[in-house]
């Protein structure tokens, strides 16, 4: 048995009996689990370049600070079409659309809004950007906002905000795109050297599932917000550092039916080990991480109870019981 697996097995045995543990002990076990998961993700990135190189293949020819308007718009368009979803060859589709259909025109967003909404929707099959009509339609609405707020030049979103990822994120949200897409764009710009500073993980369904299973033993019920909070606990200096390992694990092994036997973090994953042991962590652990109200009440009750018992003891001593 590997030392990590051995240690995590011991922790999971404790996690299964959380109701018998004092809150301080629960926090200590939780802290150890977080450290193990964090170490496993960072080790993966350190030892394997596949887990640390940016998955953005589009802009490798541009040097930092020299992105052209066409490159910026192509990059953003692929992100808006959710290139990470793996549903289609989005990068190739976007490049074909810009180079062949628009003849290399750098005014991508203006070209899109030159259509009427109906006209754009009618070209769904001709343009072949994404297999889902609703994503094709959404691109039109984003294009109108790109023209309105940023004059159709994607670089305006981050120019002047290079040291402020949070502001870039907020400027992206003006386009009414999903938060996970905005996080992906900010993180990819960081990878490419266009902006600096710590930032959140994407926090989509893939991240939520992997983090939930690795830390809590179950990916269900981990919202994007909780996934981002977990990533901040695992990588406080810069949560984005663990985004790619999470994405790679989630898209290769940790799907709806996890392939734990082949997964590189199986010795540091609460789900994988607890399945083997046939025991489940007590939900109190998850509550401890996210500060569930009922658990806060339990904590409060525990404090009141311990205060009452101290008072009782004092009373007993004073009255000579
Ligand atoms: S070991 Fe299994 S549950 Fe854990 S991250 Fe890997 S595939 Fe997912």
Model description:
The chain contains 16 helices and no strands. It folds into two domains: 3-53 and 202-290, Endonuclease Iii, domain 2, CATH 1.10.1670; 69-191, Endonuclease III, domain 1 (Orthogonal Bundle), CATH 1.10.340. It is mainly alpha-helical. 60% of the residues lie in helices and 0% in strands. It has helices spanning 3-15, 23-47, 69-80, 90-101, 108-113, 117-122, 124-127, 133-150, 165-173, 179-191, 205-216, 224-234, 243-252, 270-277, 284-290, 293-318. Iron/sulfur cluster is lined by residues 210, 213-214, 249, 253-254, 258-260, 263, 265-266, 269, 271-272. Iron/sulfur cluster (SF4) is lined by residues 210, 213-214, 249, 253-254, 258-260, 263, 265-266, 269, 271-272.
Radius of gyration: 24 Å
Low-confidence stretches: 293-303, 313-321
User: Between the first and last Cα atoms, what is the distance in angstroms?
Assistant: 53 Å
CATH names the topology of the largest domain as Endonuclease Iii, domain 2
Overall number of domains: 2
Query: What small-molecule ligands were found?
Result: iron/sulfur cluster
> What's the CATH class label of the largest domain?
Mainly Alpha
- Helix and strand content put the structural class at mainly alpha
Number of helices: 16
H/E element order: HHHHHHHHHHHHHHHH
Based on the coordinates given, report the CATH architecture of the largest domain: Orthogonal Bundle
Number of β-strand runs:
0
- Profile the largest sheet: none
Instruction: Provide the β-strand percentage band.
Output: under 5%
Mean pLDDT: 86
Identify the notable features of this structure and list them briefly.
single chain; 321 residues; mainly alpha; Endonuclease Iii, domain 2; Endonuclease III, domain 1; 16 helices; 60% helix; disordered C terminus; binds iron/sulfur cluster
